[in-house]
Amino acid sequence: MKSTILAAIAVCALSIAGATSASAAESIKAPAQKWSTDGVAGHFDRAQLKRGWQIYKSVCAACHSVHQLSYRNLVDLGFSEAEAKAIAAGDNVPAGPNDAGETHVDGQPIMRPALLSDKIAAPYANAKAARAANNGAFPPDLSLMTKARKGGADYVHALLTGYKEPPAGFQLQLGMNYNAYFPGYQIAMPAPLVEGAVTYEDGTNATIDQMSKDVSAFLIWSAEPELENRKRMGIKILAFLLVFTALLFALKRRIWSDVH
Amino acid sequence: MATEYKNPVLRWIDYRLPIISMLEHSAVSYPTPKNLNYWWNFGSLAGIVLVIMIATGVFLAMQYTPHTMMAFDSVERIMRDVNYGWLIRYLHVNGASMFFIIVYIHMFRGMYYGSYKEPRELLWIIGVLIFLTMMATAFVGYTLPWGQMSFWGATVITNLFSVVPFVGDWIVQWLWGGFSVDNPTLNRFFALHYLLPFIIFALVFLHLWALHTHKSNNPSGVEIKGDKDTIPFHPYYTIKDSFGLGVFLLIYLGFTFFAPNFFGEPDNYIPADPLVTPAHIVPEWYFLPFYAMLRAVPDNFIDVFGILPIIISAKAAGVVVMFGSIILLIFLPWLDTSKVRSANFRPVFKWFFWLFLLNCLMLGYVGGQPAEGAMLTIGRLCTFWYFFHLLVVVPFLGKYERTLPLPESISAAVMAKESK
Amino acid sequence: MADHTTTAGHGAPHGSHGDEGDSRRDFLLLSTIAVGVTGAGLAAWPFIDTMNPSKDVLALASTEVDLSPIGEGQSITVMWRGKPVFIRKRTPGEIAEAQKSMGGDKDPQADDKRTKKPEWLVVIGICTHLGCIPLGQRTGDPKGDYNGWFCPCHGSAYDTSGRIRVGPAPRNLDVPPYQFTGDTTILIG
Question: Taking a C-beta distance cutoff of 8 angstroms, is the pair B252, B94 a contact?
């Protein structure tokens, strides 16, 4: 029994060590933040998500796509269907071939206003166009960013607020910006957030820290729209299983009582 | 021995196809040692997880598209638009990790209690074949989402086959269906991923057939001698296995609902890009010990091992060591020369067993780190110890260890324990 | 070596606690089984529901159509749930013809039961015989003897209300569920 417990502890210790093993540290670890989605009772703060959407739309969407999201998903943020439709109609997406079979007229693609069922319009037609407009750098799609980086939303928030003067002796390449949290410390994107860049519709003060938190929370939702539902369901199911397992244990003890 | 069933329907069926008496014989009245501990739960648990994996897998396959241009997006569609798609996907991905945890514990149980010894050698070997097939299934399955790790992991591992003399490069091209990992590779990996679990299913059937031939081993390692040693599988082990299933589900669903990406790699949420290599290519955690062994072999093989007439590249040696570590397990019943099965009565072997387990965990940790510096040295030591344990320690101890006196029988062992 | 008898000797369970113990065990057993069955049912539901139409499919379940570009006597074809839908702005002559009778003998139906506004006919453009798409949408298409649509596959002819008049088709062209969301916009489905 003792050796079993010792074994279990050893296994746990090594697995936790293994799971949190750092990759080669070319940047500082992002400090942990508190998000409304954290923990067993994690949920979305929809007011914050709406603010985050506003940041994405007015600051980030110029270069970054979120092509896994559709306009109809915005209803999850608290917009009504009519509001979401209006947001969609404000964007243009490539239209299919017209009756003459053309997708372009005079070298320009034929566009149409977006519908709820369309994916959110991307700023560039393709990866090469994105690179051409950004000195060869590719602004990655943001739909899954908080799942695609170690540190998740903590990392995104740290990055957005991590722009500073390079330390003495640091060789900053041409066109690059110093960021304390980006691997390698040099990032092609200039600091995207400026104090007061947007006026929040709900009146919240638009500091850089606030805007960064809001857009990071929006990106959590973008990567994991099922999060709230998943955690709520999880609580119910685990509670059920606790009861069921307790019943099974009692039944096991009862049935085995004549063998022990 | 057709038992007369009272129910006329059961009688009608059983007379024509004795499936009901077969079920009764193998899962109801089946005599099982009365002293099995909870380490014996992991076999049935593995079977249940196999069924869960096949069920979730089939429903995922209804929505997944195995084409490089659509695979990643089809998985995202499952996560976002398909009803309960996120649940089925997370069940499948975490089920795979659970499957390996369970099977590793199941294998270590076998090693501790000598369950691979006569007359259960084939049972053990079939088990090793199941493990190999599981590894193949997991490998091809991981490429399907077509993320960065999917693509690059597939590239690294398929490239290993080039070490085969003369035909190595042709084999790699044949596996790829092209000149690099691309659409033909993905499509055939999907076909194989759907097929292999059913091969596992057939192997499990053989595994259970072999098990039922000589019945289960037990913690004392002393064989069943009579009725007093056993109890019927139902209700004793049906309820114990059900309880174990409940505990397992709490852990499994705990991960699925609250930490669904704990076992995963963030890089796999980036769509595959053949022009961008990730900073650190790592396989899924359950392959890490073997990955460590693969990378452990020094570049200059001759320098370390003295004289070798044949120059064998470090890459080839790594492949041989990696696959060899699993193939070697097949010979364990003959490597272990001890007359005593259970480590409970082999005090010296017991300590070496725990050391071996710790060694494997260490190999797993090393496999997740970059192969340089202290980690490389530790990886080499641990790889060496893995083989030393199996090829030297185990045979030696079998011959020279002074074992503790065995109980007369299982029931004697149970009564001795109860009277304490 | 244990033998194969159906009762495994000494280890068989027996109610050693008497009646009260048995009924307690029964209650425990019954409640465990009940909870287990409930759990299994709850677990089965996601697997069944996952095969139902997904959210992206449902998003395309309705199609909004702007009717303003369609002139009198013109027809357009729109896709709805993977099927062609004929929308025609009928001329007064066509309306009069449609309202004159109940249509064919096989499927008599009044025109005002098939339209919400008399000048707008909205029907699914699939022949009710074996599924071909009838001709009549383009100028120059044969419209059949009843000036509506003509199916070239087996010769069914539909009138200006889309009703079957001649030929093997058993039913009138189906009218999809739709409503006017404005004077010149409809929502199909």
Answer: yes
Asked if C2 lies within 8 A of B228 by C-beta distance, the reply is no
Asked if residue A175 and residue A46 are part of one domain, the reply reads yes
Per-position pLDDT tens, chain B of length 420: 455 788 999 999 999 999 999 999 999 999 999 999 999 999 999 999 999 999 999 999 999 999 999 999 999 999 999 999 999 999 999 999 999 999 999 999 999 999 999 999 999 999 999 999 999 999 999 999 999 999 999 999 999 999 898 999 999 999 999 999 999 999 999 999 999 999 999 999 999 999 999 999 999 999 999 999 999 999 999 999 999 999 999 999 999 999 999 999 999 999 999 999 998 899 999 999 999 999 998 766 545 555 444 567 778 889 999 999 999 999 999 999 999 999 999 999 999 999 999 999 999 999 999 988 999 999 999 999 999 999 999 999 999 999 999 999 999 999 988 877
Query: H or E segment at A242?
Result: helix A227-256
Same structural domain for residues A110 and A58? no
Peptide bond into B119 cis (omega under 30): yes
Per-domain residue ranges for chain B?
36-419
Among C28, C39, C42, select the one facing A254 at the smallest CB separation: C28
Q: Using only the alpha carbons of chain C, give its radius of gyration.
A: 31
From the list C13, C24, C31, the residue facing A255 with the nearest CB is C13
Q: Are residues C2 and B31, on separate chains, in Cβ contact within 8 Å? A: yes
| A258 contacts in chain C (CB < 8 Å) | 13-14, 16
Q: Are residues A32 and A99 in the same domain?
A: no
Same domain as A154, residue A61: yes
Give SS3 for C76. Answer: strand
Q: Indicate which residue of B212, B228, B315, B350 is catalytic.
A: B212
A197 near A58, Cβ under 8 Å?
Answer: yes
| Burial letters B34-56, b for 16+ CB under 10 A, else e | bbbeebbbbbbbbbebbebbbeb
* Residue A22 lies in domain: 2-69+126-225
Q: Which residues of B touch A1 (CB under 8 A)?
A: none
C116 touches chain A (CB under 8 A): no
Sign of CA dihedral B18, B22, B24, B25: positive
Q: Are residues A91 and A163 in the same domain?
A: no
Helix (H, G, I), strand (E, B) or coil at C90: coil
* Cβ atoms < 10 Å from Cβ of A188: 15
Task: Find out whether the peptide bond into A97 is cis, omega within 30 degrees of 0.
Answer: no
Q: What's this model's pTM, rounded to 2 decimal places?
A: 0.90
Report if residue A11 sits inside a domain. yes
Q: Is the dihedral of CA C14, C16, C22, C28 positive or negative?
A: negative
**Which residue out of B44, B74, B97, B216 is catalytically annotated?**
B216
Catalytic-labelled residue, pool B115, B240, B325, B336: B240
| Same domain as A212, residue A105 | no
Instruction: Please check whether residues A40 and A154 belong to one and the same domain.
Output: yes
Q: Which residues of A touch C55 (CB under 8 A)?
A: 72
Of the candidates B278, B265, B280, the residue with the CA atom closest to the CA atom of residue B375: B280
Domain count across chain A: 2
Is domain B36-419 in CATH 1.20.810.10, yes or no? yes
Residue (of C141, C136, C139) closest to C173 by Cα position: C136
What's the gap between Cα C88 and its chain centre?
22
Q: Which of A116, A248, A258 is nearest residue C13 as measured by Cβ atoms?
A: A258
